[in-house]
Amino acid sequence: MANPSLLILAGDGIGPEVMEQVKRVIDWFGAKRDLRFDVSEDLVGGSAYDAHGTPLHDETMAKALAADAVLLGAVGGPKYDALDFSVKPERGLLRLRKEMDLFSNLRPAQCFDALADFSSLKKDIVAGLDIVIVRELTSGVYFGEPRGIFEEGNERVGINTQRYTEGEIDRVARSAFELARRRSGKVCSMEKANVMESGILWREVVQKVRDTDYPDIELSHMYADNGAMQLVRAPKQFDVILTDNLFGDILSDCAAMLTGSLGMLPSASLGAPRGDGPPRALYEPVHGSAPDITGQGKANPIACILSFAMALRYSFDQGDEATRLEQAIEAVLADGARTADLMGADGGQPISTTQMGDAILTALDNSL
Ligand code: IPM
Ligand code: MG
Questions:
Q1: Any ligand 1 atom below 6 A from CB of 18
Q2: pLDDT per residue as tens digits for the range 245-281
Q3: How remote is the CA of residue 272 from the centroid of ligand 1, in Å?
Q4: What number does CATH give the domain 1-103+271-368?
Q5: Which of 147, 205, 215, 361 is the most exposed place for a label (fewest CB within 10 A)?
Q6: Which position among 117, 225, 335, 365 bears the catalytic label?
Q7: CA-to-CA distance for 59 and 62, rounded, in angstroms?
Q8: Per CATH, which fold does 116-129+136-259 belong to?
């Protein structure tokens, strides 16, 4: 049988640097666990624009649609700030999400024991935190029509449209409930049903899916502004948070920062099942392209490596190997290895991107 295919789109900024370390980890699994992938690489974002004048070439789009999973680094950077909106690096990522129909975006926010001191919140509020935000990713105000900047009388008006169909809400709700079944069975859904009709429909459909097909799930609803407040007040009250595209964008940055380790958080964006095979899927770190530290060997590769762990679990049915990789990373952190982003006020000598990769490979060897 052919090996599963993995398309790597390292992207811009620190993307290629952190992806170098992921490739070493992929090779380790091939050599030591006989878990082999057909890896191919291509461009996305600013680097694709530089090469082809578009942030995502049609050929790359076709490869992504055909791949068993896509692993993405990061896109964007100040070099591309002045580009026309239609060819900005972010448009490449949004096109991948939309055309691959990756409607369910899983964003775990987990506070690693060794790093609880790095949170901007008090340690006891975040220690042991382990939540997942399920963000709807292919609809809502990011994609709704009409959109644009139009002339109206003697001034311009900027328009974006929040739009959700019942089907779109239904399918992402199901993915949150399925995930919750593998965790604590608890989901909190967030919208603004007090001011938005789309929020009213969201709440109704989520409740109906729960009542019809997931009666074992403990479902609560919260207005998204209250949700943001509760996330910083007492984040451990949550397990799975289900929300729309825009609220999910904001709430997931907030949740990520709670953990004190933005450089450590992975994400998975999943589509509908395809026959017997895995769903279309794209895995990427939550952090951005970090132009301020690009090319200096300072970037933390852990978020990108953990994204590969999510690929092992969700696309390749290798939950045990994913756990092996996650535990190797925990061991490395417990051992005191720190990239520059994880240095506390007490100082110490940070290790480089490559040295973090070395440490993780050694911990993987030790796991055998
Ligand atoms: C994210 C990012 C993206 C988004 C940008 C880069 C388009 O902020 O993945 O959270 O807004 O969805
Ligand atoms: Mg964001």
A1: no
A2: 999 999 998 998 888 777 889 999 999 888 877 899 9
A3: 21
A4: 3.40.718.10
A5: 215
A6: 225
A7: 5
A8: Isopropylmalate Dehydrogenase (3.40.718)
